[in-house]
């Protein structure tokens, strides 16, 4: 493939030979050469399409079969303990914002200023009912500064206070190492606690990655159980391959 891409001409002959054919028996098609320039407006339209910000993060409404024993919850999640529908900036590694998210994640941050700006713009366009009056984030012991740093900068861009009231209780395996949704749910059972006073207003709850949605579900449940207003989740990227 690299040899093919490096060619300046003779692409069809290369393919015919690769398929054990004889290029002489296949006369060249009378096709005009491809242009080497492009329309700048068309390029900008393509970039804007790839960087669309309209992915919805739906809340979970039911605990997994058997519930979460440490949190002592089971069955349907009460409506007053569910998060609101949230937003996801992009898919992990996609050709739009995904490459910037991937770069920040793999380098352990900080996430690019562009991501702060576009997420702030996304929140303003989204304009959820009962608009957030403060910002919180999902904590991590493996990358303790990555998401808090991003959430703090996003809060500044939105002119909101940042309150890191969620705390990780212990080290857990990464969610991507779990085999199914039930295991992912139990992996965050008791993984967080409230540290400090929870403001009463609506909150923008920030994380970098979302997959099974159980981390957001548990964190929102804790915030709401401790007096917060409606929880509006926001994630930089989704790693989910399918809705679980």
What is the first-to-last residue Cα distance?
36 Å
Total of helices: 8
Instruction: Please state the oligomeric state of the protein chains shown.
Output: single chain
Q: In one word, what is the shape?
A: elongated
Tell me the name of the CATH class of the largest domain: Alpha Beta
Structural commentary:
This protein is an alpha/beta fold and 244 residues long. It folds into two domains: 2-41, no CATH class; 53-238, Rossmann fold. Helices cover 32% and strands 14% of the residues. It contains eight helices and seven strands. The protein has helices spanning 2-6, 11-18, 40-50, 98-106, 113-126, 146-158, 181-187, 214-225; strands at residues 55-57, 86-91, 134-137, 166-168, 192-194, 203-210, 231-238. Strands 1-2-7-6-3 form a five-stranded mixed beta sheet. Helix 8 links the parallel strand 6 (203-210) and strand 7 (231-238). Helix 5 (113-126) packs across helix 6 (146-158). The protein is elongated, with a radius of gyration of 23 Å. The relative contact order is 0.16. The model has no long low-confidence stretch (mean pLDDT 89).
Helices and strands in order, then pairings?
Elements: H1 2-6, H2 11-18, H3 40-50, E1 55-57, E2 86-91, H4 98-106, H5 113-126, E3 134-137, H6 146-158, E4 166-168, H7 181-187, E5 192-194, E6 203-210, H8 214-225, E7 231-238
Parallel strand pairs: 2-7, 3-6, 6-7
Antiparallel strand pairs: 1-2, 4-5
Summarize the model shown.
The chain has helices at residues 2-6, 11-18, 40-50, 98-106, 113-126, 146-158, 181-187, 214-225; strands spanning 55-57, 86-91, 134-137, 166-168, 192-194, 203-210, 231-238. It is of the alpha/beta class and 244 residues long.
């Amino acid at each position: 493939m690299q040899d093919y891409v490096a060619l300046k001409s003779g692409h069809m002959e290369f393919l015919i030979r690769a398929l054990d054919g004889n290029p002489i028996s296949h006369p060249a098609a009378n096709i005009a050469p491809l242009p080497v320039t492009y329309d700048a407006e068309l390029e900008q339209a393509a970039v804007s399409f790839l960087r669309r910000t309209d992915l919805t993060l739906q809340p979970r409404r039911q605990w997994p079969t058997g519930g979460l024993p440490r949190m002592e919850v089971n069955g349907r999640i009460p409506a007053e303990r569910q998060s609101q529908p949230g937003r996801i900036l992009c898919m992990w590694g996609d050709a739009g914002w995904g490459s910037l998210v991937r770069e920040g994640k793999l380098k352990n941050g900080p996430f690019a200023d562009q991501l702060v700006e576009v997420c702030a713009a996304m929140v303003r366009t989204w304009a959820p009912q009962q608009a957030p009056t403060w910002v919180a984030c999902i904590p991590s012991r493996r990358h303790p500064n990555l998401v808090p740093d991003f959430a703090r900068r996003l809060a500044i861009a939105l002119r909101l206070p940042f309150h890191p009231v969620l705390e990780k209780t212990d080290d857990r395996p990464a969610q991507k190492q779990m085999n199914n949704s039930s295991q992912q749910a139990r992996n965050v059972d008791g993984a967080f606690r409230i540290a400090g006073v929870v403001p009463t207003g609506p909150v923008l709850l920030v994380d970098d990655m979302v997959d099974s949605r159980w981390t957001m579900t548990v964190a929102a449940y804790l915030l709401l159980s401790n007096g917060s207003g409606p929880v509006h989740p926001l994630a930089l990227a989704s790693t989910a391959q399918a809705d679980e």
